[in-house]
Inverse folding.
DNA sequence: CCTCTATTGATAATGGTTCTCATTATCAAT
DNA sequence: ATTGATAATGAGAACCATTATCAATAGAGG
């Protein structure tokens, strides 16, 4: 057996999907785990480059693609022309599901979970109704509110 | 007074915003009015080119930008790498608001309004709560369900 | 170690969108 | 109807996030 790279929670899942565990993939997932921001591919690239200077931007994109496909990471479009990524689940983020408030002024993105309970209730009803009516198998949803944040609404 | 170009419902609003009424803008808005599809800029360009061969793609983009800014047209990202546009309101589409089901298999987009009543109720509550808690002025929302349509779920 | 091959980094290519600029069209004032 | 100020346009270049290419490298089972 080759040198062991550790036993982080995600590695089993990773190997189970037939993917190899590499230094690049480890550090990219680390970067996403260590922040609550909504990082772009380039954000991640620059962040990861500090402790892994040789990494290429293409590897970041390729890894993110895999992570999204596996459901470990969520990919969003907040309207600024680049994709944003966020850890979907993890060691400390088991029940991380939330929705977004997006400021049209400063482009800030606010995570909120405050009203999730009621929403989840309605979503369950809506998804059930839609599934039956359109015979559509719902896998995920995107709920985003656009407007002006505290600072931008006064200008 | 120059040749009158008609008195379509939108022209007053257009001039009121300081924009000139042009043949290109008229025909682009026509194209959006005459369909219930979710057209890309290039879709519109090709469609409009048939009755206005000289039009340029840049004009389509510029016009769409204005229409979105004015709130006459909605811009969506369904994850296929290009923006999609849809008439927000119009002569026959006063209460056109709806949400989307997006098939990850065939990329088909289904408009639905069936369960809007309950959703509208929850949205009102949620928006009120969020506005107060985050002092955020909500202007619009995007609600999309992703999954597999009738045809794609069996494969 | 050894082999097989998935992964990687550098870089070119792609493709949707935006920008530039000389020309044209709109429209309020004549 | 004509004019003049300037907004709008078309052609094409530029931009830039994302993908594809490919030779070199590294993961993992034996
Ligand atoms: Mn978030
Ligand atoms: Mn629609
Ligand atoms: Zn703001
Ligand atoms: Zn489908």
């Amino acid at each position: 057996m080759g040198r062991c790279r550790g036993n982080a929670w995600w590695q089993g899942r990773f190997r189970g999907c037939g993917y190899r565990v590499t230094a690049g993939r480890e550090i990219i997932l680390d970067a996403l785990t260590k922040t609550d921001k909504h990082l772009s591919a380039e954000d991640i690239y620059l962040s990861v480059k500090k402790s892994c200077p040789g990494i290429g931007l293409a590897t970041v994109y390729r890894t993110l693609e895999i992570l999204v496909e596996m459901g470990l990471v969520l990919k969003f479009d907040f309207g600024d022309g680049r994709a944003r990524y966020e850890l979907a689940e993890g060691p400390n983020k088991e029940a991380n599901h939330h929705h977004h408030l997006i400021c049209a002024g400063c482009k800030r993105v606010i995570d909120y979970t405050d009203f999730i309970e009621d929403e989840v209730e309605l979503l369950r009803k809506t998804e059930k109704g839609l599934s039956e009516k359109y015979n559509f198998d719902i896998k995920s949803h995107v709920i985003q509110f656009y407007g002006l944040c505290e600072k931008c609404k006064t200008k």
User: Anything to note?
Assistant: The beta strands of chain B are 39-40, 73-77, 83-87, 99-103, 109-112, 137-148. The domain at 1-91 of chain B is CATH 1.10.10.10 (Arc Repressor Mutant, subunit A). Helices of chain B lie at 9-16, 23-33, 41-49, 57-70, 116-134. Chain B touches chain A at residues 77, 79, 101, 103-104, 110, 112, 114-115, 118-119, 122, 125-127, 129-130, 133-150, 153 (CB under 8 Å).
